[in-house]
């Protein structure tokens, strides 16, 4: 691992959700929330040690010319030991465990989007093998990228379901790996919110690509199908309408802002990385909606060009990113609809882009 890589441990469910669950009246929910937070803290510490000491090399070497993924799915057996027992490898037949098969398919869908749309060979651009572990811990209410692999909890069944169910969750977490191997955005404040937003953008595009949806057909929800029956909400986040994904008596209300007018200044959640990501998320949605068609094509191409183009620094703020998207749109498409849509979108969310 490069010495300049920041020690990032990225989960799909943000800390403010567990802050609410710890205050729940149901003692079972409180216990599960505490257990999830303890497991997350242990993995976060492990991630920091990996950054200092260096990661173990992957079981298989990367292959920069590979046009097919090399997937391996492991079963943690409800422990916190990674990676666990190998249960399915590349090209092997589906197994009886649907969770294993969903993880395998989601890894493949993410690989396919990046290869087909952007000619990127796996998340590092050099054919990195894709590893995932399922059945992590007991009733674990999260999924995460730990710098080397994907990990999925089964959910508690009361607030969250199996974390392999939404393919955009898989795309989201793997995109943290893409960011790690490209712009390497610091996981704090606005750079951290951009980091989270990149994962929401391309996680949503993985879902849209796998369903062959255009921008107007897409639901623009992150984690749709993850909330258990009885929870009042649609998903974890909405790119189309940040702040509306859920409003539940236990989970609380989605705190994401859609514009800089409601930017949240906080010391929690690494400076609000999961909250303020709603602003660049909404900007991307506005660009994709204005352009129409397949969102991974023109809108996604602009965002990908910025993420991987070498000009986006680790400490980039929203304004820096916005200016780079305008430059990328102009460089690829000229001063037509693409560039004008980007300029208009950033103006709508209150971020200066020129």
Please give a structural write-up:
By secondary structure, this protein is of the alpha+beta class. 44% of the residues lie in helices and 9% in strands. It has 10 helices and 10 strands. It has helices spanning 15-22, 27-53, 98-118, 167-180, 189-211, 269-276, 278-291, 298-308, 318-333, 337-349; strands at residues 10-11, 71-75, 85-89, 130-134, 143-145, 150-152, 221-222, 237-238, 247-248, 252-253. The chain has a 6-stranded mixed β-sheet with strand order 1-5-6-4-2-3, with helices on one face. Strands 7-8 form a two-stranded antiparallel sheet. A two-stranded antiparallel ribbon has the order 9-10. A hairpin with a 3-residue loop joins strand 9 and strand 10 (252-253). It is globular and about 55 Å long.
């Amino acid at each position: 691992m490069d010495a300049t890589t920041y020690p990032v441990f990225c989960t799909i469910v943000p800390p403010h959700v567990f802050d609410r669950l710890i205050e729940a009246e149901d003692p079972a929910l409180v216990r599960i929330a505490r257990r999830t937070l303890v497991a997350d803290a242990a993995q976060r510490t492990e991630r920091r040690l990996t950054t200092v000491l260096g990661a173990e090399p992957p079981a298989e070497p990367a292959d920069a010319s590979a046009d097919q993924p090399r997937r391996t799915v492991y079963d943690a057996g409800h422990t916190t030991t990674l990676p666990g027992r190998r249960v399915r490898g590349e090209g092997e037949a589906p197994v009886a465990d649907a969770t294993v098969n969903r993880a395998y398919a989601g890894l493949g869908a993410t690989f396919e989007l990046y290869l087909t749309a952007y000619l990127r060979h796996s998340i590092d651009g050099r054919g990195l093998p894709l590893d995932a572990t399922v059945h992590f811990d007991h009733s674990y209410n999260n999924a995460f990228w730990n710098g080397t692999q994907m990990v999925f909890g089964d959910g508690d069944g009361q607030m969250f379901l199996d974390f392999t169910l939404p393919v955009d969750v898989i795309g989201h977490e793997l995109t943290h790996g893409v960011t790690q191997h490209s712009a390497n955005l610091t996981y704090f404040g606005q750079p951290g919110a951009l980091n989270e937003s990149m994962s929401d953008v391309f996680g949503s595009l993985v879902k849209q690509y796998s369903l062959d949806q255009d921008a107007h057909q897409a639901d623009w929800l992150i984690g749709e199908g993850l909330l258990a029956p009885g929870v009042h909400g649609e998903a974890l986040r909405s790119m189309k309408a940040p702040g509306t994904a859920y409003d539940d008596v236990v989970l609380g209300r989605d705190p994401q802002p859609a514009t800089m007018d409601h930017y949240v200044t906080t010391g929690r959640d690494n400076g609000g990385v999961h909250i303020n990501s709603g602003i660049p998320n909404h900007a991307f949605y506005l660009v994709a909606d204005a352009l129409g068609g397949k969102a991974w094509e023109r809108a996604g191409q602009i965002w990908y060009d910025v993420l991987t183009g070498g000009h986006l620094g680790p400490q980039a703020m929203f304004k820096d990113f916005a200016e780079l998207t305008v430059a990328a749109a102009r460089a690829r498409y000229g001063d037509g609809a693409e560039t004008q849509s980007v300029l208009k979108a950033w103006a709508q969310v209150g971020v200066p882009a020129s």
